[in-house]
Automatic annotation (TrEMBL):
InterPro entries: Ion_trans_dom, K_chnl_volt-dep_Kv3, SKP1/BTB/POZ_sf, T1-type_BTB, VG_K_chnl, Volt_channel_dom_sf. Residues 4-93 form the Potassium channel tetramerisation-type BTB domain. One of its GO terms (biological process) is action potential. Its main location: membrane. GO terms for molecular function: voltage-gated potassium channel activity. This is Potassium voltage-gated channel protein Shaw. The chain crosses the membrane at residues 151-169, 202-221, 233-256, 268-290, 311-331, 370-398. Residues 150-398 form the Ion transport domain. It is a multi-pass membrane protein. One of its GO terms (cellular component) is voltage-gated potassium channel complex. The keyword Membrane applies.
Length: 443
């Protein structure tokens, strides 16, 4: 017969002191010390969660601690701390319920940091409310603050699209026009010959320069009106990319204007192509628009969370690539016109493992083809792993971000409703005024 009655949150549990003494140095095992009268029914009341206590009491009965999967890890930890039970008693099958709380908190912390980075909160020491520089900064940097900012945001997006389109149209030979003064140069490759003997149409040049002037002025205006110090502004990744694009733009056009007759010099052509390549960084300007969408946030967070695992897989892929590249070189050692050196084998292994298969170098002997089969299968297995990791992280972050956004939206709607009710109550109170009462006394 039970000799102890435990009332936990209104639910009665009957057990014995012998059962509770199975696990020492816990709150329940020390209850017997508090009893002054022996051999009498004993009752204790604890204002705790009865559903979790049912699992805790089973620990004393069976020696195994299991929890329902629908309970939060924080609640489980609080109950374990109250009942003075060590976490080592938790069964391995229930560890996911216990430690899922830590993963969720870490994910929510990353989401909050990302959302706070997009907010309009300016440090108090840099706050310049009412200043024209502050208004201009908000127009240039935060499209959601006003109608002017939204209009400028649309204009900026159109300029980025036009500038990118012109950048690619400049490489199309059919649209370029021959120069009036052409010096016949020999020994030039077709692409260098195109830049040396042709020029972009006047309309494209005007559009390109107009976009360059627009982005240059926009960058310097932001640098002037920014509430941050100069070092913080220039250390931003987007601003660094902007500065590189602007400098490359003007140097590229200057070299094309004053040095078109020096295309026969490989060093000059190489320098020109470097600045032409750096102009491609203007695609980073689209980040200012993609950064406002939650889907892009999910991709960004999933990529960060998968970085360590993907880095290990890249190392494994590299080592496997080196292995098969070196192996196929010696397997095809006696075959002519096949794998002149191990570096060609590494190139072949990379193309085979990624299932691209250019076919420029292939094994011709049967042992080499067997190596190719194992190389292709290994590449498929290795490259399938990061896809699963990124997909899993994407799903987790998408779910958490959606829940966080819904929660914040609910709080915002609640605050708005409370403000409306407060205004309504104030208006009702102000509309009620005391009426004058006329008292007539009889003579």
């Amino acid at each position: 017969m039970a000799d102890i009655e435990l009332n936990v949150g209104g639910t009665i549990f009957l057990t014995t002191f012998q059962t509770l003494s199975k696990i020492q140095e816990t709150r329940l095992s020390s209850l017997k010390k508090d009893i002054t009268v022996q051999n009498c029914p004993t009752k204790f009341f604890f204002d705790r969660n009865p559903e979790i206590f049912n699992s805790i009491l089973d620990l004393y009965r069976s020696g195994e601690l299991h929890f329902p999967s629908n309970f939060c890890g924080a609640t489980i930890r609080n109950e374990l701390e109250f009942w003075e039970i060590d976490k080592k008693y938790v069964s391995e099958c229930c560890l996911a319920s216990l430690y899922r709380h830590d993963d969720d908190i870490e994910i929510l912390k990353e989401i909050k940091n990302l959302q706070n980075g997009k907010s309009l909160d300016i440090p108090k020491e840099e706050c310049r409310e009412g200043c024209w520089r502050d208004c201009l900064w908000k127009v240039l940097q935060y499209p959601a603050t006003s109608r002017k900012a939204s209009v400028f945001n649309i204009v900026y997006l159109l300029m980025v699209l036009v500038s990118t389109t012109v950048l690619f149209l400049n490489t199309k030979q059919d649209l370029r026009e021959p120069k009036t003064a052409v010096n016949n140069q020999t020994g030039l490759d077709p692409k260098t010959d195109m830049y040396a003997h042709t020029s972009v149409p006047w309309t494209l040049w005007v559009i390109d320069v107009t976009c360059g002037v627009f982005f240059t002025l926009e960058f310097f205006i932001r640098a002037i009106v920014t509430p941050r110090n100069c070092r913080q502004f220039l250390c931003s990744a987007s601003n660094i990319a902007d500065a590189i694009v602007i400098v490359s733009f003007w140097i590229f056009h200057s070299l094309m204007h004053i040095g078109s007759n020096q295309m026969d010099s490989k060093s000059f052509t190489l320098l020109l192509m470097i600045f032409a390549f750096l102009r491609l960084l203007q695609l980073c300007r689209f980040y200012r628009f993609l950064n406002r969408f939650q889907s892009f946030d999910v991709i960004n967070l999933a990529a960060r969370a998968s970085f360590s695992q993907c880095s290990i897989l890249i190392v494994v892929f590299t080592l496997t690539n080196l292995f098969f590249g070196y192996l196929v070189y010696y397997v095809e050692f006696f075959e002519r016109n096949s794998f002149d050196n191990a570096f060609v084998g590494i190139w072949w292994a990379a193309v085979t493992m990624t299932t691209v298969g250019y076919g420029d170098v292939v094994p011709t002997w049967y042992p080499g083809r067997i190596v190719a089969i194992f190389c292709a299968l290994t590449g498929i297995i290795i490259l399938a792993m990061p896809v699963a990791i990124v997909t899993s992280n994407f799903t987790v972050y998408y779910t958490k971000l959606k829940q966080y956004s819904s929660h914040k939206l609910t709080d915002k709607d609640k605050s708005v409703n409370e403000s409306k009710m407060k205004i309504k109550r104030n208006s009702i109170c102000k509309s009620i005024a005391p009426m004058p009462v006329l008292t007539v006394k009889s003579a």
